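debug: dumping io for the single-chain case to check the tokenizer round-trip. Nothing else runs in this session.
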Amino acid sequence: MASPAEQLTDLHRLSSSARDWVDEVRRLTTPDRVYWCDGSDAEYRALIADLEGRKELLPLNAKSFPGCHLARSHPSDVARVEHLTYVCTRDRDDAGSNNYWMNPGEAHKRMDDLFRGCMKGRTLYVVPYCMGPIDSPDSRCGIEITDSAYVVVNMQLMTRMGRPALERIAREGRFVKGLHSTGDLNPERRFIMHFPEELSIQSFGSGYGGNALLGKKCHALRIASWQARDEGWLAEHMLIVGIENPEGETHYIAAAFPSACGKTNLAMLIAPESYRGWKIWTVGDDIAWLHAGSDGRLWAINPESGYFGVVPGTNRKTNRNAYDMIRRDTLFTNVALTADNEPWWEGLETGKPVIDWTGKPYDPKLGPAAHPNSRFTVSARQNPCYSPHADDPTGVPLSAIVFGGRRRELTPLVLQARNWAHGVLVGASMGSETTAAAVGEVGVVRRDPMAMKPFCGYNFGDYWNHWLSFDQRASRLPKIFQVNWFRQDRNGKFLWPGFGDNLRVLRWMIDRCKGRVGARETPIGSLPNAADVDLAGTDVGTEAMAELLRVDAALWRAELDDVGSYLESFGERLPKRLLAEHRAQLDRLREA
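debug: decoded output
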């Protein structure tokens, strides 16, 4: 690394607004040293070596996992803390009942007290970054100040970080301000505050990714969703995947799923054997920013440049692309170790853990070897199906938007919304049933509109109204679909094989978008005719397919009653157009 004096002179002169803010934070936090990150490979290697020297990163087996490292977090700091995550707006209703709220003045005072002097004896790292391709007009920049070198190396993998971002900030003069400190990791002194009216984030007391990598959920969803509403675009918790048929025609789909519904697997789908010649291209696995193009279509960019994924359950069968991707140059967090110093997690078909995620000898009586929320951080370019259009400044045009969930008997395998407004209702109604892996009663429906419940930075009523406005902003909107890979028979057996076979359903959607296939009209939307879903090579029989596409009007009436109560809880902010769409669907079901 350059000396602090040389490096400061070289970088901080690029943006006076950034320099002034960094100086303000320096006076508050009193670090021993200030370091401006340039994003170079040499800097990354030096930071890794420094973390190794301090035993904060452990190098893994260099032969089988070259360039890979393991980090262990404090046992009290292993996940996002939604109950300590606040949206701080002047008007409480602007944050909405979907967010925890705190008055901005009170929040600033609380955080200033926590940050005062917290970096004494530490280095203050200045991390300029760009969310999205560096030259895209649809990208947005930020600067994260942190005292964690672990955060810096993760941000280098997850964002376009360094000099080019700071140069763009200097040109534009506007950026999201993110201030982070691990503090003393005391859960009683842990807060993640968002100030959307100020375009700023403050996080204290956690080193975990979702709380500390401020470019990810904090910026790219909570703050960006507010920006998107003000500027006329959408920031969504969606994957982006390209489906290329043997004729070379590629269609792009954005899809939103709550947790445990196969989002990453769909983003990196492996086509079944009978689909030779079909190709899958991953543009993004988690977040999508959608803009109306001059051609009337919605275009999508992935603001991230890496993956921060949950690793348990990943193996050659469930997600071969992800499994292959993370075998080199990957940061693992809170996984177990084998005797050969290889990472191990539940779901691997080989190996045996000897050291658990806390660093202690593994004892199966004490729980899983790897933490259930253990993670990998890796560059997206290592994905075998990485799309070259992930770096395209214009993004990719969307043919379809998909909403999904986990329902045992209600939702059919796939349905198409009647129109844009009905599609917004489908997204706003999203819910999944709890599984045995979750705390509490099994089978309880939890509403998660557009999979944005933990991430929308403002009132859901205003958010749905913004979604509804897009049929006035764009003339060639994508078709909206809903899927459910998890429908079960009376014995609790899944009726659909899932994984790569989900391509069969995506193919039907694309055919619908192109007008190549018909559909059966029902009160809840358009469903496939059973013969139009390719089942060759599967063991899905006629009876199973009929059940997968069955619509139980009584169950759906009960569902819509529950959805109506949920929507009406947003009071005056609920768009009248959405309420009318809900009533129209309920009327169709009553007439069925």
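debug: round-trip ok. The radius of gyration is 24 Å.
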